[in-house]
Design brief:
mainly alpha, elongated, DNA-binding
Chain lengths: ~220, ~220, ~220, ~220
DNA sequence: TATGAATGAGAGTTCATTCAT
DNA sequence: TATGAATGAACTCTCATTCAT
């Protein structure tokens, strides 16, 4: 009953979370039943209940697990881009980092996008278990919006609606993730470069443009 | 789908499809059970089964219904844009038409996006019932890609990856639809203008740019 | 139940029994799961299983524990009433003692009544674990019956069915216990006096009656 | 397929309610699972869910069914006793009617007592499904209390606590019901007469007593 | 056509119990 | 002694589907 979980408990919990992620990646969130997750872990259904009294908690753990992994990977890269100093470079760094993360960690990231899509299917209040995911997304978009606005204020970025661009960037990445899930042969790096080019053009200052050669097309 | 259905049959079918759309709009696809749809139509569950031997058929009918409505609304507008003559104007027309469609027909369009999201949650081969929707989307994106490429060939559009831009346009619209579903107070026209500006900048020729004043921001 | 248990064993057992009593008092018997009891004891579920190989054993221990406490409290008082000498005074002593016991030990006594009610919900052969409780009750009622019959034989008590009166006394006390559990603000002493008056009138000899003034009402 | 052809003529709902009553009578409330009830009805578990979306509603129906039967049987008898005119006769009529009802309808009445006992096992707010039962009981006791008080006001009944007597009457009947459930050979009429005698003595005016012969003992 | 009834699989959850350490 | 872990049966409930009328 202590709050310090044993090693075994942590291992099993982690395993179940991993199985839940795999199931969501491979089957989708709706089909990732407790029974399916238990089956993948090679244990009985009761084990899942033992470690996660309610499925909500398992989902919460999945969300937390993936978010942690995301932050670990992405935050250093985002910070290295020095958004306060060079807001005009942030978008490229952001897109590149996310694409790289998708390339190296497809399972968790695609699992989370599937979960996000499922949540979006439902109208009304989202389940508390996915609150953290929605908050993280909202924060992420808000930060991107802020940096874009900073660039505009400094005249290193052009005229555009920062919130719309930020939302579109996120939507483009979500879409890319599911394209990649459906077709693992997709050339992620090329796609990433194309997205960078797209949004750089969309957000650049007018002066910046003539310098762009016409041959960069993918 | 046979052409020799009686009038009553058609009326009932249409009613059930309409109720399915409403339910999906209001509750999401997952929660739109046969019982819920029958309840909304004020008929017994058996009626649904009678007209649609399997739920798949109902979904297929929903998809067909909404797609027909979409084509009816959008196609004249797309044709009026004369993509073969003015490919560089197509994107704006496309976005404007879709946003206008969303504004005037939120229920069917959001219902279809919810369905699309649910389908995207599931991995593997999609259900045959949603094939038409996926095909229509693919065709839509392919046509957009094609027109963009045509503009590039004529040097009335700049350098960018046409497929990536097309996919991103679609993703941005999907995202907008669900934003609008969650917040009906959203200013669709402003958002639409911002999207047009975003993608026009992203796809314009370099020469086109200096003409854009800095104050057009939304 | 063996006599060569260690001190620790006894202490742990007693603690678990106490927690089981508390849980039954507060939540009812059905909701007093092994997990709940372990939680209250601050130990793991396995501990309960270790000390009580089956839940039946725990219930048996609870029954034994409460019965012991009851006997300890009630028996001296019953004996002090000298039923063989003054059978006509026994009923008042019996009721007063029980009400006093309820007042001073509500948790165990109400726990046992809850358990009794649960047992009464089930038809058929009662579980062996509650045998002792049922036996004790039967003995208790039998003794009361016997004393009442003795009073009747001596013409110090009137004409009535001794078994029926005894059963009704017990039923009235059970009911009082659950009334008190539901409303701890109940005036137990007044209620007890009313019960004494009720059953004294019901069992008195005819001659005893005219002496009772009309104003004694509670 | 049910072997109980008597029920096949009834509506399925009524049959399920009857099976629920039988199960509660024979096994107790806790053991009367949906599966058990379905088994008794010779149908699949889903049938119960079809007719009673939640088990609560089945319980509610059981309660309503038994209460209706009780009122139908008891009310005319209670009214015939003319409590406003002869409050001193009401108690005997009340007890006699209840005992007669128990004798002629043991299954539903014992089922309800089992349910009542189960409810009493649980602390805290009772489930809404049993509200009607608890209300009916409370009303019943309140009416009895009122009539007893009326008799006291008219000096046709003696000095006693009317609420305590009323509660004790009810408790004695509940107890009798479960005694009878455990031992169907019990002589209900004798027991009923003994209860009438008990409570008549407990509530009589002092003057009424010398007339009572000493030989009425059961 | 239309319906109510019935089905059976599968969902999440609870729980007493067993077992290895 | 003590524990966390695991089990498996039973529970209520949901749902698409089938079927007789």
């Amino acid at each position: 009953m202590s709050t310090n979980q044993t090693f075994t408990q942590l291992k099993r919990r982690d395993q179940l979370v991993a199985c839940a992620i795999d199931a969501t990646f491979e089957l989708g969130f709706q089909r990732s039943s407790v029974a399916e997750i238990a089956r993948r872990a090679g244990v009985s259904k009761g084990v899942v209940t033992y470690h996660f009294p309610a499925k909500e908690e398992l989902i919460r753990a999945v969300v937390a697990d993936v978010l942690t992994s995301m932050v670990e990977f992405l935050e250093p890269r985002m910070r290295a881009a020095q958004p306060r100093l060079f807001p005009e470079r942030y978008l490229a760094a952001y897109l590149t980092a996310w694409v790289e993360y998708l390339r190296t960690h497809p399972r968790p990231v695609i699992a989370l996008v599937r979960l996000y899509n499922s949540v979006r299917d439902e109208a009304g209040e989202p389940a508390p278990a996915v609150r953290a995911m929605l908050d993280a997304r909202a924060t992420d978009v808000a930060l991107l919006t802020e940096v874009l606005a900073l660039g505009q204020a400094r005249r290193t970025l052009g005229a555009f609606s920062a919130p719309v661009v930020a939302a579109t960037v996120k939507a483009a990445l979500d879409d890319l993730m599911l394209q990649f899930a459906a077709d693992p042969g997709l050339d992620l790096e090329a796609y990433g470069r194309a997205l960078v080019a797209l949004f750089e053009r969309a957000t650049a200052t007018p002066e910046a443009f003539p310098a762009q050669p016409h041959e960069e097309e993918t």
